Amino acid sequence: MPKGKGPQGKRITLKVAKNAVRVLFNGRRRLELSKMGIAIFPKCLLELADVEEIDLSRNMLRKIPNIIEKFQNLMWLDLHSNQIDELPAEIGTLQNLTYLNLCNNKLTTKGLPEELTHLKNLRTLNLGLNCLETIPTTLGALRELIELGLFDNSLTIIPKSVKKLPKLERLNVKRNPLPEFAKEDEPIDTIKRIESLYLVEKKDLCNSCLQTCQGERDELHKLEDMTPGPSDKPSFPSLTTPNSTAIDNQEEWRIK
C-alpha cells in the first residue's frame, strides 16, 4: 500500500456495479453495494448515475466525493456503518432525495455542511451513532422532515427550530447527555419482593426454623381446604319457570 494512503478496499468494476442493480416493486432501480469492503467511492458508478437508490452501507468509506452531485435522480441513499467524518457541500444538490441514512459513522458537527439544509424534500434523516456535539439550527429548514434520528451522540441541546419542525413525527434523541433526559430518582417499590430464594432440606433446619415453616405450611393448607361460601346469587323459590307451566298446559293449549 502506498505511503500516506488509506486502505484501498475492494475494487468495484463497472460490470460488478451493473450486476448489483435491482429493480424494486415500485419500479425504482437500486444499486446494492452493501458489505462489499469498499473504502473509496468507485468512479465507475458515474456510468449508473441515473439510478434512484444507492445502498453503500456497511463498507469502509471515509469520504463521499463531490461527484455525488451527478446523481440527480437519487431519492434514497443509505451510507450507514461506514467511517465517514464529513459530507461534501454537493450533497445539497440532490433535490429529489427523500431518505438519507448516515447512522454509525464518524460525523462531527463540522462535518455537516450548511448545504444539507437544501434537501427540501428530505423526509427521513438518520444521524444516530456519530460524534455530534451540536445540531445546526439550520436543520429547521427541512420542513418536510418526518423522521429524525439523533440517538447515541454527545448532544446537550436540541434546537427549538428542529423540535418544532411542522411534519416531524419521530425524533429519536436517546442516549445523549440532554438535561431533560437526566436520570430520575428510582421510584420506591412499596411491594415487598423476594430477591433470593434458597431451598434446603428439612433435616438441615434448626427446630425454631422448622416450626416456623411448618406453621406457615399449615396455614397455607387451611386456605386450600376452605370451601367457597354460599352463593350471593338471589333465589326465588316461589316462582315457577315458564317452561314448567307450559308442560302442564300444553295439551289444553293445543285443543284451544
TrEMBL record:
The gene coding this protein: Lrrc18
Pfam families, per the entry: LRR_8 (PF13855)
Keyword DNA-binding found: no
Protein keywords: Leucine-rich repeat, Repeat
PANTHER family attached to this UniProt entry: LEUCINE-RICH REPEAT-CONTAINING PROTEIN 18-LIKE, PTHR48051
A single GO cellular-component term on record: cytoplasm
Alphabetical list of SMART domains matching this protein: LRR_TYP
Highest rank taxon of the organism: Eukaryota
Compositional bias ranges of the Polar residues kind: 237-248
Chain spans, region Disordered: 221-256
Protein name, entry field: LRC18 protein
Leader peptide range in chain numbering: none
